[in-house]
Amino acid sequence: MQTGEQETIIHVQWEGPYEFEAAGGLKGPTDYGVYQIYGGHPVYGSSALLYIGLAQAQHFGTRIPQEQGWLDNCDASRIQVYVGRLSGSHTPDAHRWDHLIAVAERLLIRAHCPAHNSQMNLATLEPDLRRVHVLNWGHHRDLLPEVSGARWTSRFSLSEIPGYRAFSQEEMPG
Question: How far apart are CA 29 and CA 59, in angstroms?
Fold first, then answer.
């Protein structure tokens, strides 16, 4: 993690895939962060991004098995889980760490629209996401390598940029 001039950069190191049952064993001191669940979906196919969640007060191994809905999946034996841990040159304090995990999860959900995440409440949280960048490293599967609040929020909506238009070659100086 790195915080610059009002921009927050969150590095997430991804590992996986894990079988759903095997994810229950992830209870080590670094087993916190965000996770992705892939599986069958009647519209999106047999290996779709179904859900992005967070494990901040519980280990991945405690949180992920609570997601029992995946056991009813049309292809439950092929559910795959990827876990992402916050990474960087120093460990933030507990409050900042919790905040970074929550913000990373929200921005990843907003950018990727997983089939089983509810998107309705994200608009009210948008101002928190406008200056956040999530950099996905390692086995991030179908996630974009970089997700930016500058792109996935209204930070640069056309209505907020006075005089926004395509440039004309005739208007070029000299």
Answer: 8
Peptide bond before residue 42 is cis, with ω within 30 degrees of 0: no
Q: pLDDT tens digit string along 2-36?
A: 444 588 999 999 999 999 889 999 999 999 999 99
C-alpha span between 38 and 30 (Å, rounded) = 22
pTM of structure? 0.85
Contacts of 151 by beta carbon, 8 Å cutoff, 6+ apart: 111
